Task: structure prediction
Amino acid sequence: MTENGPHPAAKAPDAAEQIECSSIPNGSGGSTANTRLYKRRWAIVFLFSVYSLSNAYQWIQYGIISNIIMKFYNVELFAVDWLSMIYMLTYIPFIFPVTWLLDKKGLRVTALMANALNCAGTWIKVASARPDLFGVTMLGQFASSLSQVFILGMPSRLASVWFGADEVSTACSIGVFGNQMGIAIGFLIPPILVPNVDDVNELAYHIKIMFYISAGVATVIFVLVVIVFQERPEIPPTQAQAQARSILPDEYSYTASILRLLRNKPFMLLVVSYGLNVGCFYAVSTLLNRMIIEHYPGEEVNAGRIGLTIVIAGMVGSLICGIWLDKTKTYKQTTFIVYILSLVAMLVYAFTLNQGHLWVVFLTAGLLGLFMTGYLPLGFEFAVELTYPESEGTSSGLLNCSAQIFGIIFTISQGKIIDKWGTLAGNIFLSIFLLIGTIITGLIKSDLRRQKANLQAEVQTVSSTGSVQDYGATASGSHWQRQS
Result:
């Protein structure tokens, strides 16, 4: 959101790309700020979604074939789990310097850093397709996990910088959509590319093919980002963005912004509830192969398909929620209802997993994904509303930091519980924390600051327009002034 600090002027798109220009009062003294939407905004958000997809795919590509990876590298299952959990662990110490960089240098520098690291990680993995190089594959995964730190906090920031007030939630959902699609592909493709064979040389060949494909895709995306990705539109899309740009560099302090967020009680409640929900999703995703194989031996491919079902359903939920928020602005109500449904879906999944019917698991996992994954953009957008005019990158970063912490705790704890007491106990463990998150969500006070800023600007626009009419508009001007 806020373009704090000096930024180089963004290259303006051609006139043919420009639409919907208006003049809106900005601050006091009668000065105005133009707002404009650019067609390029769709290319920017879709390109972001594509490189987020590439990075998210790498998060889950080991976990969904954990039994095969464990056999190939001759390591413990817990070590394979860390190939997923390193994404969560890396995020925690690096989020604050990365959000500072996002505030100071903006979207383009952040996008370039994300893709450089993502591309590097994929090529390091290409070199790790040997049974004695588990440490190298962990290094590649570390580079990819560092890239994720530059990616996860961007959807809400990108949406606010490029999109109109009635589009930001949809745009944020599209940004999250890419991440979810990457997880979906990560569930689907590795079990197909890497069959569970006993010959180590054949297994190494299949694993190298998987790594080469992801490296080639990441390289193409990196080139596209260098060529296409733009910092921001020359003219802001909303009055809220115009006001944010008016903040002088000397008036903004990153540390002071963090402290204000930590003192924002509704936001901090959201940080905890978001972390509980998304942490549960991380644990389920990481341990899905283990849970399915325990009850349905030899079904590695179907375990991937079940993971795909979770995420595809979640993408549908994300888009529906994003469009719904843009239409209704019912942030707390929608978040609360989706949280309750996530809890219900988790309980249904927990009690039906061991019934011996894979089609039932597909169905219940789809319901779980619809609500639990659909919650992701709701949390981002609700946070922006509660924290405006603070930077979206900072608020999103704190949300994701909470999710990574709970994700590590839940993944390790649920794994231990499954080993000792089985999958039902492990899933009940997660359900308890979803219940706690639901209660916390109900306690959040809905203070929609960004909506207030945009509504105030609209009222001021109508009032200002009405007061300068010469043509028998005195009464009309008075009417709008009374309303404002």
